Amino acid sequence: MAAHEATETRGAGATVPLEVRIGFAHACLQWIADRCGADLLHIKGAALDPTLVPGRGFSDADVLARPEHVRMLLDELRHHGWELINSFAYGSSFEHSATLRHSDFGLLDLHRIYPGTGPTPDRAFEALWAERTTTVLGGVDCTVPSRDAQALLLLLHAARAGSDPKAANDVEWVWTTVDDAQRIRILEWVDRLDAGLAFSVITGTLDDHRDDPAYDLWRVAARGGTRVDEWRARVRAAQGLRAKLAVASRSMLVNVEHLTIVRGRPVSRREVAAEFFGRPVRGVREQVARRARGIHRGDP
């Protein structure tokens, strides 16, 4: 969605700017979290310290929940008008967030983990939570990570954004042009969040981590790849045989949630069947096209 999208107010004919709606979305989420006792950090977008990347736009609300509170928070959100439209398993190759929608407040990405942080989601969240602060969004005090932690989270987001110009601008503002003192503070957070693999994308040293099971996942995210490349990377990154088998089996299924979002309506069984048989064909075409490009460039 565009940063200045507006929505109509029933009966009044007035418009509400998207950034205002998102501010109220954050306020709503904080109120719900306080009500049910969930720990929540507002990240990126409207919650970002404005001095990090001046004028940075946003189109939805992003929050990171304490992992053990995610299920409770999801249940509470549904009771307050938030509709789940994309679950964690199908949200991204990192399976890190679920997307919800509210008729008044728009879209929300609820993160159960933040890609690139470790060694476990619980320890990463606790490290961020220990140095939390607050900012006012929609008239409500909302919990956010410290400014330096926000800087690193923005860089980790850029690391999996490929050639996106917005991500490149984030890196320019938050890493390339900052002074040594700021870089040292960011690197301290890299250590605290065990984010070395993901951060190596920013420093151009990703290939030093080829032996890491999650290397291919970050390589595809940062440099691109086919659907087959992505699913191979997801299987390699999964921990344990059971998890690998679960990911492999999911790769053969149609993401009905995503297809519904793309079509803008519920999809029929016929459409799901057509997608099921059409995906392998597209996958083969992608692999052939990629190999042809490699031959043209003279790659081995």
Share of helical residues: 40-55%
Order of helices and strands: EEHEEHEHEEHEEHHHHHHHHH
Query: How much strand?
Result: 5-15%
Tally of extended strands?
9
For the largest beta-sheet, the strand count, sense and barrel status come to: 5 strands, mixed
Oligomeric category: single chain
Could you say which structural class the secondary elements and strand pairing correspond to?
Answer: alpha+beta
Q: For the record, give the distance between the C-alpha atoms at the N and C termini, rounded to a whole number.
A: 41 Å
Strand order, main sheet: write it out: 3-4-7-6-5
What is the fourth-level CATH superfamily of the domain at 1-147?
Beta Polymerase, domain 2
What's the alpha carbon Rg, rounded to whole Å? 20 Å
Q: Mean pLDDT score, rounded?
A: 86
CATH topology assignment of the domain at 1-147: Beta Polymerase, domain 2
Q: Which overall shape is indicated by the principal axes computed on the Cα atoms?
A: globular
Number of helices: 13
CATH architecture label of the domain at 1-147: 2-Layer Sandwich
User: Which CATH class of the domain at 1-147?
Assistant: Alpha Beta
